[in-house]
Design goal:
The chain is an alpha/beta fold. About 25% of the residues lie in helices and about 30% in strands. The chain is built from 4 helices and 6 strands, in the order ββαβαβαββα. It is elongated. The C terminus is likely disordered. Bound molecules: the ligand Nc1nc2c(c(=O)[nH]1)N=C([C@H](O)[C@H](O)COP(=O)(O)OP(=O)(O)OP(=O)(O)O)CN2 and zinc ion (ZN). The site of zinc ion (ZN) has 5 residues, from strand 2. Its cofactor is Zn(2+).
Length: about 160
């Protein structure tokens, strides 16, 4: 039996959002440099274990998957629930919109990313998403229900 190892790779992306109806400054259109920590957990495998590589997964491979599935979609985008009036103007100016369909709190975004990567077949352990240097949310893959994350069930909405 192989022992599991947890590995982590860190990414950043810049994005804007607006929490419509929030009773505070985040009701304004504003942006963040998000820091995204992806934790994977699994045995150190290779095609002919024990491999010379000694990887859970090649960080380069992980980077490629996260870039394609997350960063290309979210980086320098407006993260939209879909009810933000600014969307019309952004469309008119061909500005990048990532239509999430849920309220773009750091809780919901981290659950979304974790679910996406889990569905992609990665041995995902957790996703930790920093919205600011002092605020983050972490979602454990094992806490995501089979039918999907909580934002799917209740809209993840603290207002509507
Ligand atoms: N539980 C949550 N609370 C808040 C969220 C969220 O996603 N989950 N989001 C916001 C805002 O979007 C805001 O970007 C973050 O707010 P805050 O941490 O208060 O930001 P500050 O820049 O004021 O941080 P300081 O380090 O305290 O200066 C609001 N709440
Ligand atoms: Zn914010």
């Amino acid at each position: 039996m192989l022992n599991d190892v947890t590995i982590c790779k860190i990414f950043t992306f810049d994005a804007a959002h607006q929490l419509i109806g929030h009773n505070g400054k985040c009701a304004n259109l504003h942006g963040h440099t998000y820091k995204l920590e992806i934790f994977l957990k699994g045995p150190v495998v290779g095609p002919d274990y024990p491999s010379e590589e000694g990887f859970v997964i090649d960080f380069a491979e992980l980077k490629k998957i996260v870039k394609e599935m997350v960063l290309d979609r979210l980086d320098h985008a407006f993260l939209a629930k879909g009810n933000e009036p600014i969307i019309e103007t952004l469309k008119e100016t061909n500005s990048k919109i990532a239509l999430m369909g849920f309220r773009t709190t750091v809780e919901n975004l981290s659950a979304y990313i974790c679910y996406l990567l889990k569905e992609a077949g990665l041995p995902i352990y957790s996703v930790k998403l920093w919205e600011t240097p002092t605020a983050w949310a972490q979602v454990m893959a094992s806490d995501i229900p089979e039918k999907g994350p909580f934002y799917r069930v209740n809209g993840g909405c603290d207002y509507e």
